[in-house]
Each structure stands twice: as C-alpha cells, then as structure tokens.
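Hello,

Our lab assistant flagged a job as stuck in the queue for most of the afternoon. It eventually completed. Since we weren't sure the result was trustworthy after the delay, we are filing this so someone can double-check. Below is the sequence as submitted and the structure that was eventually returned. Let us know if re-running is recommended.
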Amino acid sequence: MADGTTFSIKRQITVRAVVTPRWKEDAERELSNAISSFDQQLAQLEQEGQRLVDEIRRQSINPLDPRVQEQVGSLQQQVAAKRAEIEEQKRQVLEQQRQVRELEMEQIVDQGQLESFCQVGMGDNLVEKLQAAVVVRDGVIEAMEGAG
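-- returned structure --
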C-alpha cells in the first residue's frame, strides 16, 4: 500500500452536548415522558394479568382445582417478573433524571454515538482517526474533534 492507496473504515463518533437551559428542558421532558410510559405499561400489565386470571378461573369447571391454581400461579409469576423488569427500567430513568437536574450549565456531557466513514492510508495514526467527536450546543455543532 505504499502507493498512496486509501480505503474507508467505519468509526463511531461521540456526540457531546453543552448543557444549556434548553438542553436540560428537553432532557427533562424526554425522561418524564419515558416515566409516564412506564407507568402506563405497569397499569396495562396489571389489568391484563387480572383479566387473564379471571378468564382462566371463569373457564374452569372447578376454580379450586390444583391445575387451575398452578396455571394462575404461573401467570402471576410471569406478571410479577415483567413488573419487576419495567420497574427497574423506570428506576434507571428516574436516576438519569436526578443526574440531569444536577448538571451545571456549560458542562459537556456525552449524549450518544453516530457512525461515519473515514479514509485511512499508510502512515495514518489509526487511533487518532478512530477518536472522533462532535460538540453541540442546542443541536448546533460547535466543535469537531478528529474529523480527518
């Protein structure tokens, strides 16, 4: 490859955001919406679980039959497992919300990742080529690092 040949490689670009009043407001709104969604999922899960238990009992000749009780118990375990999963996701979002509230204005925070391609050739520093980032303020790019 000493002939100057290059090729494209895919790389991750870190998106960093400057904390501004608008950014905090948007982040709070997004997290609050996620929390509301979890609450709705929990309510739907409880309703559906109870509806299915009632249906199993209604369809059986003897609701006290051990097989019916076993079926109901199994369903209740499934509902409890799903409830715990949703509650854990909600707890994580609540923690993110707490962290957002504690951020200082003008602080720079990692916001996500993008993918892009870059050209590499003989003599290039691959580590530098792979370490790319953009800094945005309210959605507008302020700086690009490792854009080569």
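-- support follow-up --
The delay was a queue issue, not a problem with the job. The result is valid. The beta strands are 6-18, 108-121, 132-137, 140-145. The first helix runs from residue 21 to 59.
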